[in-house]
Design goal:
The complex is a heterodimer of chains A (683) and B (324). Chain A is of the alpha/beta class and 683 residues long. In chain A, 30% of the residues lie in helices and 22% in strands. Chain A is globular and about 75 Å long. The N and C termini of chain B lie close together (9 Å). The chains are: A alpha/beta (683), B mainly alpha (324).
Amino acid sequence: MSGPLLRAENLRVGFPDGGTWVYPVRGVSFEIGPGEIVGLVGESGSGKTLTALSCSRLVGPPARVSADALGLGDVDLLRASEETLRALRGRRIAMIPQDPLTSLHPSLTIGAQINDALADHGVPRGERRRRVLEVMERVGLPDPPGTLRRYPHELSGGTRQRAIIGLALANAPSLLIADEPTTALDAMIQAQILHLLADLRASWQMSILLISHNLAVVAGVCDRLLVMYAGRIVESGPTAHVLAEPMHPYTRALLDAVPRLESTRRPHGIPGAPPTPWNRPPGCAYHPRCGYRVERCQGEDPPGAPVRPGRLAACWVSQAQGALPVIGTVSPRGASAEPAHRSPGPTADPLFEVTGVTRHFTVGPAWKREVIHALDDVNLRVHRGESLGIVGESGSGKSTLVRLLALLDRPTRGRISYAGEDLAQLRGARLLRFRRRVQIVFQDPYSSLDPRYTVADTIREALVTHRICPPGEEGAHIREVLDKVGLSTHFAGRYPHELSGGQRQRVCIARALAVRPEVLLADEPVSALDVSIQAQILELFEQLRRQERLTLVVVAHDLALIRQVSDRVVTLYLGKVVEEARADVYAVRPRHPYTFALSRSVPSVDRVGELPPVLVRAEPPSAARPPAGCRFHTRCFNAQPRCSRDEPPLDGDDGHRCACFYPVADAQYASLAPPAVDARAGR
Amino acid sequence: MTRYLARRLLEAVPLLILISVAVFFLINIIPGGPTAAYENNPHLTPQDLARIERELGLNQPIYVRYVRWLGAVAHGDWGYSLASRRPVLVEIGERLPNTIYLLGVAFAVTLALGIPIGMLSALRQYSLFDHTSTTLAFMGQSVPIFWFGLILIIVFHVSLRNPLTGLPLLPGGGMYTLGEPFSVWDRVSHLILPVSMLTLATAAQYVRYMRASMLEVVHQDYIRTARAKGAGGRRVVWRHAFKNAALPLVTVIALDLPTLFSGALFTETIFSWPGMGRLFYDSALRFDYALLMGIIMVNAALIILSNLAADVVYGCLDPRIRYV
């Protein structure tokens, strides 16, 4: 291997801030060798994206990029002219941006956009069409000649992400920078995209810088890891070593935050939030959140120094001791090996009873009207005091179900009752009472709070609507409920834009709790948040369940996460319940092939260098034309001719129901995917 | 698409009827009428006036008159102008091309100024050019256009003289000089002042729209994607930024056409331009009911058509729009 492909030394990115400069990236050094996949990990706001953008010099004014060295091969990126850089971008260094919807030109076809990318680098017109099809084939876009003529909004999330990767690969770059390429995607599609990246390296010797906030995503493909915090790299080293024995407390905390499917160890959030470039604490930027901190950490910022061969860490503790001591408490608040404290179990008292519920949506113009089968004949119960998880990929109907339960929508057919009362019959005071008893928390805390309302206003509105307390006494209630969700009272006067994502979601939960509900419905409550913050919110849910005796219904596409918060899990596929079982059964022994595939697609921090297997095609069929018989048979690895004719009933006892003629057999567990050993469980 | 067009055109019919009802009743409740001009004429007795009213059908109740008007229009008979005694359609047919000529040129100039200035302003945000153009645009929007027209006449027609001939620098009215043979310069010189007047406010508005729209688009992720692909500066600006930034402008243009028509009213009156605006002004003064109705209905139809055209264009430019 000749020298590194990309080399950055003491890279800094600064923004002017009223006369001075602030540095979101302050002295980052790293190298990427040819054919190497390097992971860059850290929470939102740690400077990952700015670091990536600096590598292709896409950080524009007013920001300023400086470095002791920043080179791609023999090109000095700092001194290169805009013309040189332009020729470099796409040709030698390409990027995959995070959001596949907003990153594609909305009014050009996919084909035209890839074609443009080729034209920008002087590929002659005659060759382009062939090359476009080649690239589309390479990234696994379905039906290339057809997809060529599609616009971005006509494609699903996974297909769009493939199209973006196609754009990046069009000119066969030697370095690919992938900025959270799978964060917006379902687990199955994520697994396929990760396979694609690994494949590109294997077949094209491409170097990849993979950015993610989730260690589990990078664990499978990356050779080396860079962990970034508050604008600096705090730890680096080979993936296996870093994950097996982290040298920086932050890495260890990130590792503890990842939800694990196979393990009963609960994920632990990192308390607090990463500092912004404006309010970085003195000394080590991580010390206020660190469980290992010593006096020196508050005064002196540790430089990155070798702790072991090939391992750098910026931590006074590990530098002094050569390793991080294993202590009982990893984070000041958390606990590592303590058993999962399960809340009071479910009772036999059903709160929600869903009977034969169907919800169809009619879309499209009159002459080509389509019926979307969002839910078909769904039966389920939610018992008082239990936590029910609903899992499924995008388009499975899980959000529709939550909306029906919250009475934000009404079923096309079927009946939903709450505590014996038919929801369809609720009017006036009884409706208002239902609205108080059942509260909902939405997926995106950025758009579900009124930006012109302070935190107190948002909560007060709920209190006043439901006359929770005598007028004038709202203040005390607001303080009380903020305290319950772990926010100090000075947040009351803040506006949503002044809060971080995790804090916002806490406000949403506080708003829901303020009216003393019996049931909390949560629709993907953490999928918009960093892993470290996700765990915090999950802990909060668990704690509230115990203290407030709440019944919880949580919807998510991440099975590992659902497993951590639920007693019982229901799998939805294309509007049908296909499996229903206790959460611990789900993790070890799902019977339905769909749930099985779903559970195996979750990446794990415990399987270094090993990617989740892709057991089924990632894209579900259209909900407008659900397949006959078993709806899953078009993707199923166990499908027999019978599956396309007859629809399997949901069979089994209360402990475990499954709608499948040919459930996953014992022998298949070993052959399809060996269950990972929780390497760190026994430590 | 054909179905969509057919449906939209069908929908326009009841809309036009509704407009005609509203307008018909509105112009009839204005005090005065076609006979008002004769009332102080000592040679006409009250009997004469009553006879004139009877002959014009003005003694009928208003709804009878409306139904008769509507029935006649349905047969293609728009009636006669009271003042000129010529068919309404002939009057309009003579004036409409002149107005479209004036508005067309003014509109082309508006876009030719507004779009590039707005784009450049956005691309060089906070530069001297940006500050100057936004300030001027703000002023342009604030100036009352009839006042601006009068100032133009005072400066370029009254005060400034052509140093060679001693004649006014620019003509102060009309479409061309009467009695002179056709010449391009003659036509152009007559256009300069009215077009400037029409352009000022709308161009200023377009600068602001284009700048805002462009600023929004250049910060979108797909612009970054384009740059990361290695697309050249010009390509990023035109193919990626402009194409998407121009979309909202189409709606603005459609909503602006009525404003242009009303702007034409002032402009044509001030510059004695023989177009629809002045015809409207003159016939309103004379209570020329049939002609007024004709003019307003033609304008209404033009506005409905231009909105439809905008929707169609929008659909062609933005693939996310589907006709329903």
